Task: inverse folding
């Protein structure tokens, strides 16, 4: 599988960029998975102490599965390392990581302004997108592609720049 990230400042177009990339990639026949890093310390999928899944976890279950009619969710009682998470994506051609900064993969950086861009630019950045890509074509030799108006071009760039992930 090929893995890349999309990182940037709040409301800079990360999710919109990812939506366009996923749509274009799926249209090309790829199987795509995603991981969304949530930076809220109080986030929990089952915060209600009386929920059955929360009660299973509190009793000591190492892994809890909530299986519904239209969805299956696995609840791990800790923050897993990215290689472990990625091992669950067997069969995907691409996995896109939103807001994940603790794994060295190729990155698309989003921003509002050049100041934001300087702050978020990574040595792994191979493309710039999001709101700033509406007004610039490149930054220090890194191409800027507006995923909203040109999902095909940004997906072409991903196909050429992102290599197989090594576990």
Result:
């Amino acid at each position: 599988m090929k893995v890349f990230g999309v990182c940037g400042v709040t409301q800079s177009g990360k999710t919109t960029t990812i939506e366009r990339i996923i749509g274009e990639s799926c249209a090309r026949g790829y199987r795509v998975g995603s991981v969304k890093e949530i930076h809220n310390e109080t986030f929990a999928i089952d915060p209600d102490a009386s929920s059955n899944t929360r009660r299973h976890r509190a009793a000591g279950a190492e892994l809890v599965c909530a299986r519904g009619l239209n969805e299956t969710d696995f609840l791990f009682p800790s923050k897993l390392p990215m290689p472990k998470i990625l091992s669950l994506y067997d069969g995907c051609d691409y996995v896109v990581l939103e807001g994940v900064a603790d794994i060295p993969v190729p990155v698309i950086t989003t921003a509002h302004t050049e100041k934001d861009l300087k702050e978020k630019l990574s040595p792994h950045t191979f493309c710039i997108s999001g709101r700033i890509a509406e007004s610039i074509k490149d930054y220090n030799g890194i191409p800027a592609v507006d995923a909203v108006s040109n999902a095909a071009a940004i997906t072409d760039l991903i196909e050429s720049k992102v290599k197989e992930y090594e576990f």
